[in-house]
Amino acid sequence: MNNKEYIAELSRRSGYSQENTQRMVRCVVEAMAQRFDDGESVAVPDFGTFELKNRMERIVVSPSTGQRMMVPPKIVLSFKPAPSVKNKMKKGDQNG
Predict the structure, then answer these.
(1) DSSP 8-state symbol, 93
(2) Quick one: which of 39, 37, 51, 53 has its CA closest to 81?
């Protein structure tokens, strides 16, 4: 599902226009981004938690050349699904 399809479906389910739905989604994403900038995690009830994690410096090996390279430490965004979502994924539930 791409952004256009997501907005159309969300608009259909919520009863708002696609323009208003797009605006609401943009506000939610901006608010989440602000929390990440502040170093906070974001929990979405019955869906899961987005959080920042520190990845340590590590050595990787290029499969094509066999050359070892140092990857610097970085901060990554991770997602931990809620138990109900995790169970649906395990069961292969396509109907949500």
Answers:
(1) -
(2) 51
- What is the Cα–Cα distance from 19 to 41, expressed in whole angstroms? 28
Map out the domains of the chain as residue ranges.
1-40, 41-96
Report the CATH superfamily, name and number, of domain 41-96: IHF-like DNA-binding proteins (4.10.520.10)
**Is the distance from CB of 45 to CB of 69 less than 8 angstroms?**
no
In this predicted model, what pLDDT tens digit does every residue of 69-80 receive, in sequence order?
999 999 999 999
Query: Which of helix, strand or coil describes residue 35?
Result: helix
Task: Read off the tokens for 50.
Answer: 């987005």
- Torsion from C-alpha of 40, 85, 92, 9, nearest 10 degrees: -80
HEC profile of 36-82 = HHCCCCEEECCCEEEEEEEECCEEEECCCCCCEEEECCEEEEEEEEC
Segment 43-54, tens digit of pLDDT: 999 999 999 999
